[in-house]
Each structure stands twice: as structure tokens, then as C-alpha cells.
Design goal:
This is NEBU protein. Keywords: Actin-binding, Repeat. It comes from Drymodes brunneopygia. This protein is mostly helical. The chain has a domain of about 45 residues. It is built from 16 helices and no strands. The longest helix has 13 residues.
């Protein structure tokens, strides 16, 4: 069954200029790394010639000199110790300005004037500010504000003092309970107290024997010739089997 197909597979021939074959070759050339770097490899084999005064070389050298710390500080190192036209450091404007800025930033020198003058204050004792401060101190003083009870500011025989003492005695707990001292140790029976009498009255109200009266205890005599009795007798005779 497959013999004819196997033989036919070996005899297939595709033309090399078909669109599919050409597209496959173009894709292979695009993805080929060797062809991608072929031009660069050939340029490297040819070599290059760059002069020392070329613009890229000069740019690189200038950038290197600018970035170099030695070149950056070379002028400063050469000028150290060479002050021309200034006999001393105080005559140099730059040094004088730096010293001035340092003096302004110094905390001790900044506060020197204040420390020297803060103890040299002369103020009269009758100045308004001093008098007002003394008055405020007296108002907020705890010593003058408090007056203890034993420091009486009035005569002891005044009416308001006597009245106050009487009020204190009435409010005193010892005086309030002094009339109960004679009751200590005395026996007391509850018979006749308000609670006992109240309980007895409640018991009498709830007592069924006292609340109800039995019929046999009532003294009652019926009348024999009353209409209801006569009617009851007549009905009994009519209903009697005898």
C-alpha cells in the first residue's frame, strides 16, 4: 500500500526559484548572525587610521582633563602661599570677609554683647512695671491667699461667730449622735414597735378564719309561712313519689 508513496517521495523535485524557496533563503539571511556581523568583521580586518589632532581625540582628552582631580586642583596648589600685594592676611579682602563670616557664626561672640549687658540693668523700684509685677505676685501668692482657721480675723464674742459655732455644733457628728449615747447597752423589746404592729395588721387582713364567717355560726330562724317556703313545700309534695 505504501510502496508507491515511498517511491513517489524520492522523485519529488522543487524548482529553486519558487517564491517559497526564495522567501526561506531571505529569512535565513536575515536571522544569520554570521551575515549580521560580516561587514563589521571585514571593517576590522582593514584597520583604521585616526590622527592625534582629530576632533574626537581632542574632545576625549579635554573631558579627561576636566574630570581629573589633579588638573582640577592644579591651579589652586600653585597659588598656595603666593599672595601678591597684601602684606598680611588681614589686608586680603577674601580673608577678611571669611574672618568676618566666621565671627558672625561664632556663638560666643554673638552672645558676648548680651552677656555683658544683661547684668547692667538699672530700673527704679517705683516703676509701673515693677509695681504691677508685685501686685500680680501678691494676687497669685499662695501664702497670702490662704488663711488658716486658727487665725481668727474677728472677735470671738460677735454674733456671727457665735452663730457659726452653733451651726458647727449642729452639724458635728459627735453632737448629732450624743443623744443616743444613753441608749447604749439598754435592752429593747420589739413588741409594740411600728414594724410588729404593721405585721400583725397584715396577718389579720390575710387570715381566712377572721375574714369569713361560717353559716352555722350565724343565728338565723326562717319563717314557715313565707311565700317561698310555702311554694317549696307545694313543689315537694307534687314531686313526691308517695
Amino acid at each position: 500500500y505504501t510502496e508507491a508513496w515511498d517511491a513517489d517521495k524520492k522523485s519529488i523535485h522543487v524548482m529553486p526559484d519558487t517564491p517559497d524557496i526564495l522567501l526561506a533563503k531571505a529569512n535565513a539571511a536575515n536571522v544569520s548572525k554570521k551575515l549580521y556581523v560580516q561587514a563589521w568583521e571585514e571593517a576590522k580586518k582593514k584597520g583604521y587610521d585616526m590622527r592625534a589632532d582629530a576632533i574626537p581625540i581632542k574632545t576625549a582628552k579635554a573631558s579627561r582633563d576636566i574630570a581629573s582631580d589633579y588638573k582640577y586642583k592644579e591651579t589652586h596648589e600653585k597659588e598656595k602661599g603666593h599672595y601678591i600685594g597684601c602684606p598680611s592676611a588681614k589686608d586680603d579682602p577674601k580673608l577678611a570677609q571669611a574672618a568676618r563670616a566666621m565671627a558672625l557664626q561664632n556663638d560666643r561672640l554673638y552672645k558676648k554683647g548680651y552677656n555683658d549687658s544683661k547684668t547692667q540693668i538699672h530700673m527704679p523700684v517705683d516703676a509701673m512695671a515693677v509695681v504691677a509685677a508685685k501686685e500680680c505676685q501678691n494676687l497669685v501668692s499662695d501664702v497670702d491667699y490662704r488663711q488658716y482657721l486658727h487665725q481668727w480675723t474677728c472677735l470671738p464674742d460677735q454674733n456671727d461667730v457665735i452663730h457659726a459655732r452653733q451651726a458647727y455644733d449642729l452639724q458635728s457628728d459627735n453632737v448629732y449622735k450624743s443623744d443616743l449615747e444613753w441608749l447604749r447597752g439598754i435592752g429593747w423589746l420589739t413588741e409594740g414597735s411600728v414594724d410588729v404592729v404593721k405585721a400583725k395588721k397584715a396577718q389579720e387582713l390575710l387570715n381566712d378564719r377572721l375574714y369569713r364567717t361560717r353559716p352555722e355560726q350565724l343565728k338565723f330562724t326562717s319563717i314557715t309561712d313565707s311565700p317561698d317556703v310555702v311554694l317549696a313545700k307545694t313543689n315537694a309534695m307534687q314531686l313526691s313519689d308517695v
